[in-house]
Design goal:
By secondary structure, this protein is α/β, with parallel strands linked by helices. Helix content is 38%, strand content 19%. It contains five helices and seven strands. It has a five-stranded mixed beta sheet with strand order 5-4-3-6-7. Strands 1-2 form a two-stranded antiparallel ribbon. A hairpin with a 5-residue loop joins β1 and β2. The radius of gyration is 17 Å and the shape is globular.
Length: 185
Amino acid sequence: MKLRLFCTAFACLALSLQVSAQVGKTFPALKAETVESKVVNLPKDTQDKYTLLGLAYSKKSEKDLLTWFNPIYQKFVHKPKKPGLFSAFAYDVNVFFVPMFTGVNAAATGTAKKKAMKNIDPRLLPHILFYKGAIKPYKEKLGLQKKDVPYFYVVDKSGKIVYSTTGAYSESKMDKIEEAVDDGL
């Protein structure tokens, strides 16, 4: 039992070191599409401001990815309808969730877009990009080793990764993302 606990702790530490090792590197070019098939080239098309990217490449990771939708929307996307005291504190960042369809699953991209248009809040749709292609380059460059967790990256205006994390939403992870964004403003 102790050995299994140690192995689990060691694996988590190794994963966190792998993901944090990407900090300071340039986010690799990634071509994705909106639900309306508009092409977005990351990070090239987002170099006007900081960008928060959430990547997931398996059905299992989708569950954890979904835990981030509302908190990220509320913190970084939602703008108050009326100008007020707190409207000056609103963030101006790009936010994209990127489900990655690879291998035989790449054929499901069209179906996934249709499901998203039907089932996802229309306010979130502009923030969802669909990637279809090879996963190997991103595994190597971004350290996407565990397919059952989503990966999050804060990318600065020059395309460099300034922070990364993995897994389901937590307040402490959100605090670190917010700190990384604040440091760049």
